[in-house]
Amino acid sequence: MTTTRTAARPFGRTLCAMITPFTEAGDLDPDGARELAERLVAEGCDGLVLNGTTGESPTTSDTEKTQLITAVREAVGDRASLVAGVGTADTRHTVELARAAGAAGADGVLVVTPYYSRPPQEAVEAHFREVADASDLPVMLYDIPGRTGTRIEPETMIRLAAHPRIVAVKDCSYDLLGTQKVLARTDLAYYAGCDEHVLALYAIGAAGCVSTVANAAPGHIAAILDAFDTGDTARATELQLRATPLIEAMMGAGLPGTVTAKALLARLGLPAGPVRAPLLPAGQEPADGLLASYEELVAA
């Protein structure tokens, strides 16, 4: 059941919040990134978000961010959109990263609310406008107050929607009413940023998702949306619920999604490598549980 809103997909429909593979020595692994990106696209992702939360953006250098975009673009060509995380706590630095992302081949930028300084809404709005004005790339706003300490309030979102290059939102607000208000009053393309909300937001008009779980199970996440698009809402519900144990293991068990995604990918023999400090790797017991949940999902 395709709605009017789901037709507006500026960055695709099934996006993966891709990890940043590192070598065992902790350096950027461009070959691993190419391999992982190729697999994700081949198995159902039509967009990749690089240098985001799951991509360990706080601990990768500006040079590494650019190198990752270049490597992934080489691997996937025009088969998937690339959205580059460029958000920082510093507006000037964010502008620099947005321009560098465009030069490296990104199709859009993901801009998180400035964190730590906790700017008021007037300053939040000014920050996003300055970044959008500074680059030709379309912008996906990233609303994740649990990490930044600051919401993009619905009224702020509605005002920002008038900017010609602010076209989408990665929604990790956990505020369904606020999301519905913005969906009802703007043409912003919403992407569910929390895997447990993939189907729920899609059903009320989201454009798709930016999924961490898709690092391991891209085909399953795509299948949820496929089923809904064909009108088989019962099947879509079944698939969403079937993914719940893996979603909980990866996103709700007390470890960051970066840590769980890398632990599971390593168990699957896929490029991942270590996490960077201050994150710590998952222990054997959580990694065993992740693998068990994944195997249960793919065996069903």
From TrEMBL:
Recorded catalytic reaction(s): these are:
L-aspartate 4-semialdehyde + pyruvate = (2S,4S)-4-hydroxy-2,3,4,5-tetrahydrodipicolinate + H2O + H(+)
What Gene Ontology cellular component terms go with this record? cytosol
Q: Which InterPro entries match?
A: Aldolase_TIM, DapA, DapA-like, Schiff_base-form_aldolases_AS, Schiff_base-form_aldolases_CS
Task: Give the subcellular location.
Answer: Cytoplasm
| Site keyed Part of a proton relay during catalysis: positions | 53, 116
Q: Please tell me which top-level EC class this enzyme sits in.
A: lyase
Q: PROSITE patterns, from UniProt?
A: DHDPS_1, DHDPS_2
What Pfam families does this protein map onto? DHDPS
GO:BP terms for this protein?
Answer: diaminopimelate biosynthetic process; lysine biosynthetic process via diaminopimelate
UniProt-annotated binding residues for pyruvate: 54, 210
Family per similarity comment = Belongs to the DapA family.
Subunit organization: Homotetramer; dimer of dimers.
HAMAP family per record = DapA
Q: What does this protein do?
A: Catalyzes the condensation of (S)-aspartate-beta-semialdehyde [(S)-ASA] and pyruvate to 4-hydroxy-tetrahydrodipicolinate (HTPA).
- NCBIfam families with a match to the protein in the record: dapA (TIGR00674)
Name the record gives this protein: 4-hydroxy-tetrahydrodipicolinate synthase
* Originating gene: dapA
